Structure formats: structure tokens, C-alpha cells
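USER:
Before I trust my own judgement here, I would like a peer's view. Write it directly below this note and I will take it from there.

ASSISTANT:
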Amino acid sequence: MTNYSYKDNIQSFLEKSTEEIIGYISLANQFDSTQLQNRAWEQQILILKNTLKDFSGTIFFEFSIPRMGKRVDSVIIIDDIVFVVEFKVGEQKYLQYDIEQVWDYALDLKNFHKPSHLAVIAPILVATEAKNHLLKLQQLLIMIICYYQ
């Protein structure tokens, strides 16, 4: 059993339709997916497709952190940097609780996922209704990658 619902290289992810990706996630997801969840995945996929078009690497959806029972919305690996991306669909603000959640996911991944022990891990929170969230996400990826090169 894998610890994610969807895995692909970024180029292939960009070429697939949103419906196809949601289908893969839904079939592999061990939890019931609701219409609300499917719409959330749809927004996440659209945001990530717009953000990742100039990058190469690997993307995961619904990544389970071993022994913790937590699922990260998306994990993206670019240039040996692991981006832990948590979405708050419909949220206009970056709330402290949500910031702590994505930070905890990054720490849990670092401590409980053996391949991540030595990796650079960058937690990223996306509030989908916040101003300029797409531009900020793209800039964050570029800044972090440049910093570690």
C-alpha cells in the first residue's frame, strides 16, 4: 500500500486533465470523497498547474505521514527540496492555527518519514481566497530553490 493517493512527475501532471487527476486521487483515496472534497482538489490542481508550469520534479497528493495518521494535501519535490503544501480552500486569511498545522506536517515528515530525515523541507500554506496567493506561491518556490542552490 502506498502512502499517497496520487504521484506524478510535474510535466505529466501538467498534461493531464483536472478530471483525470481527481479520478486517480478518488480511486486511491481510502477515505470517502465528497463533492466538497472533489471541488477542493479541483482548486488545488488548478492552482498547482498554474504555479508549477516552469518547474520539474515530482508531485504527490494526499500524502500520509507514516505513524502519524495525518495527510498533507500536496508534497512537491523540486531540486531535492521537499515542499509540504497545505491548502485552505475558501480561506481569505493566513490563520495562526493553519500555519501551525503545515509547520507540524513538515516536522512530522522530517521526523517520521525516513527519506525526509536529511532533506530540506519547506512548509507552505495556501489560503485560496487571499490576495495574490498564486503569485506568492510561485515567488516562494523560486526564492526557496534559489536559496538552497
User: Anything to note?
Assistant: Residues 35-52 form the longest helix (18 residues). The CA atoms of residues 22 and 49 lie 13 Å apart.
